[in-house]
Design brief:
single chain; 100 residues; mainly alpha; two-stranded parallel sheet; 5 helices
């Protein structure tokens, strides 16, 4: 917790999905199977990542999931948080999830 695992430099293009896709790819390559990756827009990004021709198959193969933080319900949708917050996930057994 609190240690940068992957960094990328977003040059002149803002926060595009390609950066989160690249970071997710690196995290899966480094840490392997059964990951839960926290992202402040994990609910929407999950659809993007799963439909990616390069990352989608890797997500399925390694059984990777995405989740959101506790502020997500206030900023986006409370009902969405039920599906995407780690506290409500059967697969999550740790309370320490860092978001990128």
């Amino acid at each position: 917790h609190g240690v940068a695992l992957v960094m990328c430099d977003m040059v002149h293009s803002g926060e595009l999905a390609k950066y989160a896709l690249a970071v997710s790819n690196e995290v899966i390559d480094t840490f392997g199977d059964h990951l839960m990756i926290g992202y402040d827009i994990g609910c929407r990004f999950s659809k993007t990542a799963n439909s990616s021709p390069l990352l989608g198959p890797k997500i399925c193969k390694h059984k990777t999931r995405f989740c959101v933080g506790s502020v997500h319900g206030h900023a986006h949708c409370c009902l969405c948080q039920i599906d995407w917050h780690p506290s409500y996930s059967r697969q999550q057994n740790r309370s320490d999830v860092s978001l990128f």
